[in-house]
Amino acid sequence: MKRRFEVWLPLLLSAVMILGMYIGYRFATGQPNKKIFKKDRVTALQEALDIIRTRYVDSVQIDTLEGNAIREMMSELDPHSVYLPPAELKEANDDLSGNFEGIGVEFSQIRDTVNITYVIEGGPSDKAGLLIGDQIIKVDSNNLTGKSINSFKIRSLIRGERGSPAKLDIMRNGKVLPVTVIRGNIPTPSVSAAYMMDKTTAFIKLDKFTNTTYREFMEAAEDLKKQGMTQLIFDLRGNGGGYMDQAIQIADEFLSGDKLIVYTQGVNSPKTEYRCKRPGIFETGKLAILVDELSASASEILAGALQDWDRATIIGRRTFGKGLVQEPFLLSDGSAMRLTIARYYTPIGRSIQKPYTGGKKVYMDEVWERYATGQLYYADSNKVSNGKIYKTHGGRTVYGGGGIMPDVFVGLDTSNYSREINMLFLNGSFNDFVFHYYLDNKKILDPYPNPQVYTQKFDPAQNMWTQFTNWVKKDTVNLSGVPAFEKAKVEQRMEAQLARFKWRDSGFYQVMNTKDTVVLKAVEMLRKE
Asked: What is the rounded radius of gyration, in angstroms, for the C-alpha atoms of the chain?
């Protein structure tokens, strides 16, 4: 009996394997993704590419044609579904990674020359001895002078793999010096300012939502709490968004319990809820969120959640109106699609996505329309009130569609700069002057231990304005007729730009916030509550 079983055992195992393979095949062919197991028919697009490849009169870059075809397909969807070739994909990923690999400097193109405007302390360039004011003439034998050089090309040359050498030719004091910098990992902070405005009021400025944003926020908030923070002004103006999960985690720090923060849903994406998961660092203090027409996506998720739960006072102007969620899909040639897969909804069910049926140009130009129609200047000109009406958990009226309408509207300053001053901002002459003024007067900031003391005691007075008016004469600009209020605004901007060289963006905002109408309104509202 035993011998007979040993003879049949191999046949029995073979039969089981064949049966299992057959069942597995039948199961696979019954699933939605069965095309993975079954070759698709050739599409008309693939047929066209094959015909062009084999029959066209000249040689053709098929990869380029494929990329253009994908880009054209994406343009027929929504304004935020995009195709990214390999080079653009790396740039986009670096922007949201919270760091990049490079030499650790900030630069500005002044008069067709690359000038180093900041050297990161302890970074690769600092270790190599580079200084503010040095001019980069060459990188690895590539010239960086002339009108044909742009910021994209400069970044592509000075960035590179960590540990690789960047051989630079530096112009300093009229002499060319060879300097080798070993590239390293360079952080790109998303929290650009975090400081105490007074004994209890803190200010945090957030530029974007990167991989490191939540960590940066927590470090800033913990430090500010130690300094006595009981009320916070959180500035999201100009923040175009980024990673949704970072906004959700920050919202969790302001909301208690297991409150709903946001949910997403699409035709091919089931409803997914994101709720609070832990006790937050600032669940009870007074909170003001600053927004404007360039606050978008993740910024709107955060502002919308806090508004729906009546947790914060939203101050400023109507946000951009981007309520779509993108997911990246890598392609075989190293490119990628960022495809919209769902819409997101605030806790009470608002979709704040503005219409895009008129095409991408009309969609993007809608912000400029707000300028033209007065929506950025006067609260009663806002059209968002035409959207669907919702009630917050506290019973206040809010609206869906077209962005987040603030609880307190603060319009743009109607006292605009004159044409001459605007031209100097746009052509770089203003930044050029302040940069050279700093180089010629480096010790001017030495007496001031921090931006607060600097703001109170530094006075550019007539001397700096006189130098500025002489400086811009080379651009054939005459500032003798500039009114006093405009002169005062320009001088404050000079003071803030100088502060940036010593205290970075934090110093800049500490100077500008002293007269920022939106910040001042936030301070006023927090005192009233």
From this structure: 29
